[in-house]
Amino acid sequence: MLQIMGKRCFNQVVKKRTIYKQVLNSTSTQPVAKDSETEFNKQLKQYEELSKIAPKRARAKKPQRKPFAKNLFLGNFDEEILTYPQLEKEDIDELETTLTQVEKLTKQELSNYKQFDANFLQNFGDYKLIGLQAGTFENGRECNISEHTKIMETLCHHRLRNNIIHNEQLGVQVLVKYGSDSLKKEFLGYFTSGKGIVGFCMAEDKMSNLTNMATKAALSADKKEWILSGEKIWVVNGNKSDFLIVFAMTDLVERDELQIPKITAFLVNKNSPGISSTQYDVNNLDLSKIRFDNTPVPIGNVIGVEGDGEKMILSIMNEFRLSYGSVCTALSKKIANKLCDYVIEETTDENLLLKTDAVRDKIGQITLNTFAMESMTYLTAGILDMYENQDVELEAAIIKYFSSQKTVENANICLNLVGTPALEESHWCNKLHRESLKYATLHETNDNLKVIIALMGLKYVGDTISDQIRIARNPLFNAPEIFKRMWNIRKDIEDNPKLKLKLNECLHPSLLMSANNLEYCIHRLKFGSEILLTRYGAEIMNQHIDLNRLADCIINIYAMTAVLGRASRSYCIGLQHGDFEMLMANAFCNYAKEAVQLNIKKIYEGPCQTNDENHRVIAKRLVKFKGYFPVHPLSRNF
Amino acid sequence: MFHKMWRSYFTILHKDRNSSKCVRNCIKHINTSVVCLSNGKKEAKEVAPKGLFENLQNKNRDTYIETIKIFVNRDAIYRRGHVDFIYSALKNMEEFGVQKDLKVYKALIDVLPKGKFIPQNIIQAEFMHYPKQQQCIIDLLEQMEDNGVMPDYEMEDMLLNIFGKKGFPLRKFWRMMYWMPKFKNLSPWPVPNPPPDDMLDLAKLAIDRISSIDAQSKTTIYHANDITDSIDHTWIVSAQSTKQKMLLQEYNEKDPVYVEGGFKVWLRSKSVNYFVLRGKPKPIKEDNEDNDNVSGLEVPYFGLKPPVKKSLSLNTSQHEQEDGIIFSVCATGTSSKDSLLSWIRHLEKDNPKLATIPIVFTLKQMPGDVTVTEETDS
């Protein structure tokens, strides 16, 4: 335990905030006050306000570490990550007071709101709940990511969670992170006070990559405006929004066969000429298609640097994926709580629902799933807070996949347990189930994401051990190395890797078994990714079935890491239910190990012993005959 | 001996499953070799009551059946010359248009007397009892097979009653019943049997078959009437996929495109003339990607795009061939140059680029007004 606490020490470096300087400068460079008394009072008031704001304590970050999840593919485990991150005592105290306010707000005062509009948002603005990461001088809270995630989770107790999270993560947050000072000055206050809603326009019909983005922006003749035209789809809050963040192609650089698109983000007033929107027919979600016909955008409304859009999209998507962790955790907790109430309610003397095995099994699963997604979310947020500029794109994608997928699973379990009453559209269970589906499908489907997860890992592996793979793929040219390799992987082939990472030394001793399970899985993952790269080479890009399996493994391994670290910490510092967290961690690791074992076995066996090849052939046939092809079982040939 | 031979053919069959012709040849070969052992010259059989079928004025199914009835009733007891009668009936089937009619074949088999030809002992059974009669029915079955007529179980009963369970015709029947159902639905592009008589339906089938290379192809039926100044008022069945539209859009407008044809495509016994719109070939990119190099894989962040190369470059489509890019394919009611011109005009509506590209008509044969031709010799 001492070791754990030791690793947690933060060096507090007090650093003068640049933002503080800026504000002081801006006050001093203001024009000399006129003699009128009102003007003077106004300035005085402004000054008083500013002097009340205390810049937050600067939080130092540790130097960047190697990406954690990506390194798992190579069999390297960064033990530091097993130390579950935590907030400083004073931070958590402050956070908790905020959370009680937020909880009161979402559960009582705003519980009747069904429309996501400025009226609703202004309540949030009053409590500074929009643009959480904005600086204190911009009416924000200067939250770090853990705090941000936790506050979002609490906000997501409200039924409009999808709208809230889109406005925050894909709207205001973009401005907070990338907006220039002048843009922030002009607009950020407007949004953080909840007076306006921001929509995020990125997706397009038939856009398979950024090169064929059809929305284009060009400078007008007088170079004072950008002229924007194109169509964007799936814009959440599209109808109610007052401003839109639009990504458009401003240039396409062609070099030989390569095409490099220059994407730029714009902040567009929804009332500008040439904007029309049509709403999709989606239940309880404001989802729109928005058209731009030669819409003028002032040149100052470019977010970030011109042509930097691609980097922005990737980084925003990371944080957005991470935010799915908080919203899905909130939803899953709600499912668990509601189900618990339901079971207690329905239990009678004759029908002891509470004590049946069937119900216990299901409730246990839901709790375990929720526990895992919560652990992963805050582990990742903590990693981001703790290390400078840490690469967590893979972790974020894992969280999006895991949390949304498990939330759908939880809702399914719940639907099955409740049974017929849940068929009613107004039933809580039905509503939650429909909502959970939205998280699994909106913007990017989980199937798609899984392939991305696996490829992110394999890209890292490929870049690192490209030479080894080349040798392994050409055995006849490299006989000595091949024999060495055969010797080295002999234990992996027997499915009995040697455990040598000693992960149990970083955890509570009673987690020995699970720590060993985790290590086993890491070795298997390494083995699996090496097999795939050796077998398919660069062609691995197209082997989606195996990529799916590999993704399943890394997802499970990351989840195991998170639950083990969390449970160990809770138990060591004696948190309430710490002993049960240990139990849940062990239970989850059992599950995960089984899944990883099976997946790697299938990867090892290859397409012929598994059903992969059969599926491919059947699918080809179906496409050829453009539909279900088998003749009816009652038909006769003669 | 017979079974040994059969087995050797069986192995050949396995190597080339698709060709039903091969099977037929095998079976023919077996039959003739068996016949050669027991039977004399083929010409000797053809002493038929001449002119029974040939001299008829109305040649259709009814008169054919009527002729068989007349023969049966003429000599109800002995039915002399029935083998010759059957041979001459088989020969004339196509003229009466009954070569695909199972009932007619049954009526012919029914001409033979029942019971007389059943072998009574093992020696008779092995040495082909009544060889001339047996061979006659084997030939009849062979003709059925060549015409793709599948026998049914009633025919089995008839053969059993005529030749007994050791008879060669019955063995042939069983072999046919084993193979024919297996070949019946083996075609990867099924065509209804019999194929439709309507030329338009037939053309649709043909164009669907040709364009099935790209699952996204859409078959459209245009009418030449819709084009002003068109002379031939006929239909045009045309197919084009989104990829082809894209390729046409990207095409260099200085290069001409060619309308080529007419080529023939067969649908069972009927053929359809079709034409293609072909452009100059693109240089096909050499696939010199090093599959062993796994560094620098690109993650497709915005959706799946199989099949992709490591660098996510686009693969050449199946429409881009070494000798040209195929932009569209069509069949018209008249196959005339004017109808093809109407086709191009229709395509221009979907592919505005086509209006700016020079079009060359290189029609190989004189445009005639027959699209659908019936196969004459089998």
Summary, kept brief:
The complex is a heterodimer of chains A (638) and B (378). With 638 residues, chain A is α+β, with helices and mostly antiparallel strands.
Please characterize this protein's 3D structure.
- Chain A: Its cofactor is FAD.
- Chain A: One of its GO terms (biological process) is fatty acid metabolic process.
- The complex is a heterodimer of chains A (638) and B (378).
- Chain A is an alpha+beta fold and 638 residues long.
- Chain A is built from 20 helices and 8 strands.
- Chain A has a 4-stranded mixed β-sheet with strand order 1-4-5-8. In chain A, strands 2-3-7-6 form a 4-stranded antiparallel β-sheet, covered by helices on one side.
- Chain A is globular and about 90 Å long.
- Chain A starts with a helix and ends in a 14-residue tail after the last helix.
- Residues 5-48 of chain B have low confidence and may be disordered.
- Chain B folds into 2 domains: 48-184; 199-282 and 315-374, no CATH class.
- Helix content of chain B is 41%, strand content 13%.
- Chain B contains 13 helices and 8 strands.
- The A-B interface holds A 207-210, 257, 314, 317, 444, 448, 451-452, 455-456, 458-459, 461-463, 466, 469-470, 473-474, 533, 537-542, 544, 623-624, 626, 637-638 and B 150, 152, 177, 180-181, 184-185, 188, 212, 215, 289-310, 312-313.
Task: Point out poorly predicted stretches of chain A.
Answer: 1-34
Secondary-structure content class of chain B: alpha+beta
* Strand content range of chain B: 5-15%
What CATH architecture of the largest domain in chain A do you see? Up-down Bundle
State the order of secondary-structure elements of chain B, H for helix, E for strand: HHHHHHHHHHHEEHEEEEHEE
* CATH H-level homologous superfamily name of the largest domain in chain A: Butyryl-CoA Dehydrogenase, subunit A, domain 3
* Largest sheet report of chain A: 4 strands, mixed
| Major pleated sheet of chain B | 8 strands, mixed
Quickly count the domains of chain B: 2
Instruction: Please state the overall shape of chain B, judged from the principal axes of the Cα atoms.
Output: elongated
CATH domain topology of the largest domain in chain A: Butyryl-CoA Dehydrogenase, subunit A, domain 3
Provide mean pLDDT of chain B, rounded: 82
Strand order of the largest sheet of chain A: 1-4-5-8
Text of the CATH class of the largest domain in chain A: Mainly Alpha
Helix count from the secondary structure assignment of chain A: 20
User: What is the domain total for the residues of chain A?
Assistant: 4
Helical residue percent of chain B? Answer: 40-55%
What is the radius of gyration of chain A? 27 Å
Helix content of chain A: 55-70%
